[in-house]
Amino acid sequence: MLSPLVEAFVQSPATGVVGFDGRFDWTKDGEPTSSGRLSVPGLDFVSPAGPVKGARGEIEFTSLSPAIITAPNQRLTVDSLDIGADATALDLNFAIDAAGFSIAGGSVQAGGGTVSIEPLVVPLDPTQAYSGVIVLDRVQLGDVVADSGFADKVMLDAVVSGRLPFTMDPKLGLKITAGALGAVQPGRLSIQRDVLTDVDAGGGGADVPPNMVEDLAYQAMEHLAFDVLSADVNSLDEGRISVLFHIRGRHEPPQRQELRLTVAELISREFLNRELPLPSGTQIDLTLDTTLNANQLFADIMAVNRARQGQKEPAPTPAPETGPETEPETGPETGPETGPEPEAQ
Fold first, then answer.
1. Where are the domains positioned within the chain?
2. Could you give the CA distance from residue 56 to residue 38 in angstroms, rounded to a whole number?
3. How many CA atoms does the CB half-sphere of 174 hold within 13 Å?
4. What are the angstrom distances between the C-alpha of 101 and each of 95, 110, 120, 195, 204?
5. Contact 112, 139 (CB under 8 A)
6. What is the average pLDDT across 122-140?
7. Average pLDDT over residues 53-58
8. Whole-angstrom Cα distance, residue 218 to residue 200?
9. Cβ proximity of 183 and 229 under 8 Å
10. Which residues fall in a compositionally biased region of kind Low complexity (predicted)?
11. For all residues of the chain together, what is the average pLDDT?
């Protein structure tokens, strides 16, 4: 009876100790009763999210049949979970009853801060949807960027807090709606030019060549020290997530830059035809529109975890057979975006 509850979460290889004591009581005329205790003094295993180290806890069951029900306020802890970036000190408070898996609260230390989940109920029926809220408290967003494959192209130092309301639907998958994050302290952003697409930079005037304005916008994003950063997070179709950043700060390159022009250059306007250094301290107001393929990102993380455990990749699903006169339809691409699409002002 317990196996269906854990088989989707506890996968091989698993090492450690797990104990269970249970009993059934009945009388000639009364209804049978049951109870039990699951003891986990220490268990390492592979979960769908990654390798788990040091799972511990004791779970009191007040019923084993016909429904599995626990006493209130059960607790499990985990030393670490490797999900591409290390997460430590997982703490989960929960109960199981006829309504489902009731999570009173859970938290994990990640990115130098805390990621927690507000109370919710996960139905035992896997066909039912549920919703909840993930809360970030002083989490280093740069760690997420570093683990997403852009570490050599994007450097982000941003400690953020915020809320990510979500809905999990078995048919539609995970959807984030009206998520909001904000930096709690100044930080820095550096984006290499080859990551950016569709730069729209304004404020140069009608007579200023667009290439010069775009070049200044690129310089602004290569060495940006910000005082204000916010992000609106929303799910899109086909497993994509939109993250719309709003950033205000200034240009701070490693070496101080100045823009010096002669009177003759100002009169002839020849300076408009050459590259110009963006002066240090230039104020910047940036809108950065990024799109992440969440499904592909999660799949890549799972593939890395399988490789770490020496597991083989699952065989690809064979394509359905088609008749000789049937042409396959070509749908929209769902691979990763080439990079963020910024708009600098």
1. 1-125, 129-311+340-345
2. 11
3. 15
4. 6, 24, 8, 43, 57
5. yes
6. 91
7. 93
8. 10
9. yes
10. 331-345
11. 79
